[in-house]
Design a protein that fits this description.
Number of helices of chain B: 0
Shape of chain A: globular
Strand content of chain A: over 45%
Number of helices of chain A: 0
Distance between the termini of chain A: 39 Å
Number of strands of chain B: 11
Distance between the termini of chain B: 37 Å
Largest sheet of chain A: 5 strands, mixed
Strand content of chain B: over 45%
Structural class of chain B: mainly beta
Oligomer: heterodimer
Radius of gyration of chain B: 13 Å
Order of helices and strands of chain B: EEEEEEEEEEE
Number of strands of chain A: 9
Structural class of chain A: mainly beta
Helix content of chain B: under 10%
Shape of chain B: globular
Order of helices and strands of chain A: EEEEEEEEE
């Protein structure tokens, strides 16, 4: 299973765009990239998933370069409520796309 | 998205007792459910994969006789922590995989405290 590496923590002010990059050098052909958000004492919440290029939904964008060895989660205009831990996972369809959680990135948004 | 529930949301028990945690997929059938454990300020660690109608597959280092998993129906999996000890205190999270597209949805978690 591909291992992921993310920054341990990031700080941002309200209203700014936040980009969190995840490295997954050993990603396999069948692997997808999925990002989850987790608040304290809650289960992870799905944010976005992609295979290549760019994916956008109502809460975030996911940028994946051609070699797929990294990906960047982009959160536009963050608010205080976006303070959470963000996990990048790499997995294939058979594993449900999300089995091995890395350490995640703890994002702190301040006024 | 699909909804997964867990019950109870938190439980406190005495050392040596057994505790059962339920994980339900509310609006879909889940042939596979996963159980995770999360210690404070740590990441989720996969404990086992539960398949409906068959024995669970445990990750290395997880004692199958201590953490009993039953997946008797397509909407319910249970995790029983037997003879719980204080070191078993943790946040237990389940997830369920949607058969149609293999997406995984997580439950809200169960906080177990063993005194």
């Amino acid at each position: 299973l591909a291992k992921t590496t993310q920054p341990i923590s990031m700080d941002s002010y309200e209203g700014q765009e936040v980009n969190i990059t995840c490295s997954h050098n050993n990603i396999a052909t069948n692997d997808y990239i999925t990002w989850y958000q987790q608040f304290p004492s809650q289960g992870p919440r799905f944010i976005i998933q992609g295979y290549k290029t760019k994916v956008t939904n109502e809460v975030a964008s996911l940028f994946i370069p051609a070699d797929r060895k990294s990906s960047t989660l982009s959160l536009p205009r963050v608010s205080l409520s976006d303070t959470a831990v963000y996990y990048c996972l790499v997995g294939d369809r058979n594993s449900g796309y999300a089995l091995n959680f890395g350490k995640g990135t703890s994002l702190l948004v301040t006024p | 998205g699909a909804v997964v529930s867990q019950h109870p949301s938190r439980v406190i028990c005495k050392s040596g007792t057994s505790v059962k945690i339920e994980c339900r997929s509310l609006d879909f059938q889940a042939t596979t459910m996963f159980w995770y454990r999360q210690f404070p300020k740590k990441s989720l660690m996969l404990m086992a994969t539960s398949n409906e109608g068959s024995k669970a597959t445990y990750e290395q280092g997880v004692e199958k006789d201590k953490f009993l998993i039953n997946h008797a129906s397509l909407t319910l999996s249970t995790l029983t922590v037997t003879s719980a000890h204080p070191e078993d205190s943790s946040f237990y999270i389940c997830s369920a995989r949607v058969a149609a597209n293999n997406e995984q949805f997580f439950g809200p978690g169960t906080r177990l405290t063993v005194l």
